[in-house]
Amino acid sequence: MPSPIPVTRLLPKDIYPSLDIGICSSPLTKHGSTLQVPIQRLHGRAASRPWSSVIHWKELRSAHPVGSGGFGSVYRAEYFGQTVALKKVKKCTKNKLASRQSFWAELNAAHLRHKNIVRVIAATTCVPEDFGDESSIGTILMEFVGIKNLQQIIYGHAEPLREDRWLRYSTDIIHGLRFLHSHSVVHLDIKPANLLVSSEDICKIADFGSSLKLDSGCEVSTCSPHLSHIGGTYTHRAPELLRGEGVSPKADIFSFGITLWQLITREQPYTGERQHVLYAVVAHNLRPSIQTNPVFESQLGRPCKALLSRCWSADCSCRPTALELLPHLEQLRSQI
Fold first, then answer.
1. Which one is catalytic: 14, 20, 172, 189?
2. Among 114, 151, 251, 286, which residue's Cβ finds the most Cβ atoms within 10 Å?
3. What φ, ψ does residue 38 adopt, rounded to 5°?
4. Range scoring the smallest mean pLDDT among 127-136, 137-146, 250-259, 264-273
């Protein structure tokens, strides 16, 4: 199924010409312990791509459900003998356009490789009848990180979340965001549920269904009204996005600030009805409580309080970049 919006809006030029073209049929090959894509011939020229636009369904085995969300379901499967995550993006009956845009947005970071970003292996809109259904838009194969995320670690475990651990997770997130932003990709849905934790206790950014690829050299993008998938989760959404203003990497920094607060306090950021929270965030500068929370009065808590205030500033120009945040987090880690 073709993209309902220009693919150039979502994907780099060295990727989008091959997405729906049968000539890209080279299989993934095993090399060491990872799956890699060999050099392929695209439109008469050689191009090395880190992912494939073709899934070899005969090599796919044993799909078991591990989770689901608004636009799809995730399964654990075997592909060429290795464990992978298979994501089926489904049609949303209430907003079919948004679900199609979500599929293409998932591929905004497909060409990127970083230890703190979930790696895409293959993706296609061509799904055989044996593997698909009428509600499926497309399928994405990704590295299998595990089934544990920060949401579960923060709220689903009774054991203490030590300072060294949540600081390490925070640093992982910012390393991933720095890399994404350096390649003009804005995630737009940073929250604990979208931050997976591997068996090696490494935090990885996942779920790019709300992401946006900024134009080269452009720090702020004015969203098209047709990009209905843009938004993310309201509790973590930056106020400028709630006002319908331009998208920039600073929106991810705001979301990171809310996530960092959750890691520190292990509390829910807001109470009350959704519309009341949205209005208060924009009109009254509502933020999670730090002034009356005793956890922010410790030796480590005071600099964290100052850092949070900068990350969720109402003026996005006052928020630090991911690159600027890294030395602050490293300094906090050195104090433990």
1. 189
2. 251
3. -75, 175
4. 127-136
